[in-house]
Amino acid sequence: MSENDQINLIYQASCFILKEIECLLASNGLLLEAGVTQFAEVRQSGRLIACAGLDGNIIKCVAIDREHRGSSLMLRLITEVTDMAYRNGFERLFLYTKPCNIPMFTDCGFSALATVEGRVTLMENSTTRLPHYCQTLAEQFRAGEKIGSIVINANPFTLGHRYLIEQAALQCDWVHVFVVREDASRFAYRDRFELIKAGIKGIENLTLFPGSDYILSKATFPAYFLKEQGIIDECYTALDLMLFRQYIAPALDINHRFVGTEPFDPVTEKYNRDMADGLFRAPSEAPAIQVVEIPRVEKCGGAVSASRVRKLFDEGRMDLIRDLVPEATFAFLSEQANHR
């Protein structure tokens, strides 16, 4: 950096500044991702030469003008956006980048967690946090020949979710259930977790885990350098399954993962198919995980799903929801309906 360089922290970028950032990103072959309005920027004599965006605890939209690459500018830029995240209350930071950029971000204190070759690498600002998380998981280890797992969003928790968990519990010595932690869902994570906890009462061979940063959220997965939706979906799925197979599953000796069949959403249906490749057939040093699909339970003339419940909720059809959800979920939705 030179004495003419000025660093600014922007907590709500104006349309004019966003346009400048968009142009800088475009010159680097990147897109401005919707919803990212917080940035650390570097200007030289008033001209924008570098930027790094912040989306919660994820650093996005990092770009440096071609003339200024190879300097100490990247380290200063990442330091500033990291401090910005700390001020926002986020200390555990992640970033997604092209694999060729790993050395550059390693020099900034980030370490690689998983890579889709030639596409994307997930990094975080720690070398010890993921191993520590796995150690925490291992404290809940349960011995058995068949150890199952389920990852659910439960938006909201339905009798379909309850059925899936019951079937897994019947087939396994123990089942570990992980909740996706994101507040981009229709219902807040805190509410979803409490509804799941209430809905699984009576199932004894089960551990419910709160959400973690290592169960990836598709809502915050970046699109700014992958661009094509098909590639974005492919990379999200691959990274999510790598983290699960290489780190989470070994900590608990998980050898089965259960999912419900997906008759409605083609994206989720493809994810289920890709799961069998990523967890079982793909080459890996980690043990293979058998994917088990459980047919959806049907009630009132159709498959029970969270999307069906949300649709009925939006239509005010609480009378039809009653048969699709546990009592705790129905009580929660009724209260929500009364406050609309």
Automatic annotation (TrEMBL):
Keywords, alphabetical: ATP-binding, Ligase, Lyase, Nucleotide-binding
Sorted alphabetically, which PROSITE patterns does this protein's record hold?
A: GNAT
EC number(s) reported in the record? 6.2.1.22
User: InterPro entries of this UniProt entry?
Assistant: Acyl_CoA_acyltransferase, Citrate_lyase_ligase, Citrate_lyase_ligase_C, Cyt_trans-like, GNAT_dom, Rossmann-like_a/b/a_fold
Could you say which enzyme class this protein belongs to?
ligase
Catalytic reactions of this protein:
holo-[citrate lyase ACP] + acetate + ATP = acetyl-[citrate lyase ACP] + AMP + diphosphate
Which molecular function terms from Gene Ontology are attached? [citrate (pro-3S)-lyase] ligase activity; acyltransferase activity, transferring groups other than amino-acyl groups; ATP binding; lyase activity
Q: Which residues cross the membrane?
A: none
Q: Which SUPFAM superfamilies match?
A: Acyl-CoA N-acyltransferases (Nat) (SSF55729), Nucleotidylyl transferase (SSF52374)
Task: Give residue ranges for domain N-acetyltransferase.
Answer: 1-128
Q: What does this protein do?
A: Acetylation of prosthetic group (2-(5''-phosphoribosyl)-3'-dephosphocoenzyme-A) of the gamma subunit of citrate lyase.
Q: What is this protein called?
A: [Citrate [pro-3S]-lyase] ligase
Source organism of the structure? Budvicia aquatica
Gene from which this protein is expressed: citC
